[in-house]
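Researcher: Structure prediction, please.
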Amino acid sequence: MRRSVIFAGVLAVGSIVWIISGQIGGHKNLTNTNDFRATKQNSIELVSVRVRELHSRTEQNAVIVNGQTEESRRIIIRAETAGLIKTVSEKEGRIVKAGEIIARQDIGDRNSRLIEKTALVRQREIEFEAAKKLAKKGFRSDAKLAEAHALVSSALAQAKTIRLDLARTTIKTPFQGILENRYVENGNFVKIGDNIAKVVDLDPILAVGFVSERHIESLEVGQLGTVTLVNGQIADGKLRFISAVADRETRTFRVELEIPNSDYKIRSGLTGKLKLPLNPVSVHVISPSVLTLADSGKIGVRIVDDGDIVRFMTIKIISDTTDGIWVIGLRDGQRLITVGHEYVKAGQKVRPVLEQTKNGA
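Model: Predicted structure follows.
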């Protein structure tokens, strides 16, 4: 009986110890589990991105556009009176001076009609003088005097018309240039308005291009520019014209570079590239591959700030060159994400890995 009691007591004590040890062990296991979870959470690595420290450089920016040469002036000389072509310049493509005669028309009876009208003028003037004398003596009314004066004016006008018509039979060039085309031959009969010849002015010559609306505000009339033609010719000039109205289809603006061409070596219609330098600008040169779009649609790049937080920076593209794109809107010392920018977003903390570079990205 006593042994049973002792055994029961030992068993009870053992059970209590086992229960207590289980609770303690369970609490310890629970603590270990929480520690494991915390360690696992802390062990989640931040996304690594490669970054470069930005350094600006000063560049001589320029607008480069396709274009072609054009004559600064052109004119189709037309007949101002009807008649037969008596003589015409035979050699096309030659230089003609301002006021040079390139064709003559047969004057017909114009000289005889001029003599007739000149005589009529003299007659009317004599009649008017006589009318004035009679009017002073009271033998001629003011109305008759006015009529005599009107007849003089009419005769003078008729004589002037004949003189002008006679002068128009001699066809001259209005400015120095190249006689590009001749449209008549000796013996042709021409009416008023018929084409006689085409003259073009190649000094100065124009290099014409079309500039996008993004760059047009950076240009000024009078600034220097260069054109490189398809045949290898290179010429310098000044910007003489910037259109105030964009082309409705291309949204570009016509610009004209005026180039001296006294030797006429530059021909009209040659294609080439216009280079219009702009003021020096401080830019950062980056790779196009780092560009990204914000939700708003603005173009920019992602950087990492001092707290290793990703930030989106809006930029403006100035030029696209072989060594990268020139942009403004960034600051020296900022860390530009060059690899991994597509996997992170603004506000996210990352682990930046710095790479070495001379300038830009």
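Model: The chain is about 25% helix and 40% strand.
Researcher: Thanks, that helps.
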